[in-house]
Design a protein that fits this description.
Plays an important role in DNA replication, recombination and repair. Binds to ssDNA and to an array of partner proteins to recruit them to their sites of action during DNA metabolism. This protein is mainly beta. 15% of the residues lie in helices and 39% in strands. The protein is built from 2 helices and 6 strands; from the N terminus they run ββββαββα. Strands 1-3-4-6-5 form a 5-stranded mixed β-barrel. The radius of gyration is 17 Å and the shape is globular.
C-alpha cells in the first residue's frame, strides 16, 4: 500500500500554530492548488487542501510561512472523524506533511528577508532531517538551489 502526496501551491492565509495536549507543536494551513486543466469558462479550477505539520517542521512553518507563499508539500493523506456537542459526526481529510519546501527565492524568506533571518531559517530547516528513516539511506539531498537541473 502507498499513501504519498506531493503538492505545489500557495498558502491561502498565514499558518496557525497551537500545541497538542502533550505540548507538541502542530501548525495548520490551507494550500491552494490549481488543477492541470482549464475549465470551459477559461479558468483553472483550484483545490483548497488542509495541511498539518508537527514538531520542528510545525515551528519552522509557523515562523516562516505567510499568506501567498509558494511551497511544495510532501506527505500523506489522513482522514479523521469527530462528534460535536450536538452529536453530529464530522469528517475531515487533510495532508500530514513530512516535508515542506519553499519555492520562492531566499530573499523572500522570513518577515523582512534579511540575511540573518535566512541563515537562522536554513539552520532550523536542516535540523528537521537529522533523523532520516532507514528507507531513505543512500538518498543524497540537494544542498543548494544551484544544484537543481532547472
Amino acid at each position: 500500500m502507498l499513501n504519498k502526496v506531493i503538492l505545489i501551491g500557495r498558502l491561502t492565509k498565514d499558518p496557525v500554530m497551537r500545541y497538542s495536549a502533550n505540548m507538541v507543536p502542530v501548525t495548520t494551513f490551507t494550500l491552494a492548488v490549481n488543477r492541470n486543466y482549464v475549465s470551459q469558462n477559461g479558468e483553472r479550477p483550484t483545490d483548497f487542501i488542509p495541511i498539518v505539520t508537527w514538531r520542528k517542521l510545525a515551528e519552522i512553518c509557523a515562523n516562516n510561512l505567510k499568506k501567498g507563499r509558494l511551497i511544495a508539500v510532501t506527505g500523506s493523506i489522513q482522514t479523521r472523524t469527530w462528534d460535536d456537542n450536538s452529536g453530529n459526526r464530522h469528517w475531515v481529510t487533510e495532508v500530514v506533511a513530512d516535508d515542506v519546501r519553499f519555492l520562492e527565492p531566499k530573499s523572500g524568506f522570513g518577515s523582512s528577508g534579511n540575511a540573518e533571518e535566512n541563515r537562522d531559517f536554513d539552520e532550523g530547516f536542516d535540523s528537521v532531517f537529522e533523523d532520516i528513516p532507514e528507507e531513505f539511506e543512500g538518498f543524497t539531498p540537494i544542498e543548494s538551489e544551484d544544484d537543481l537541473p532547472f
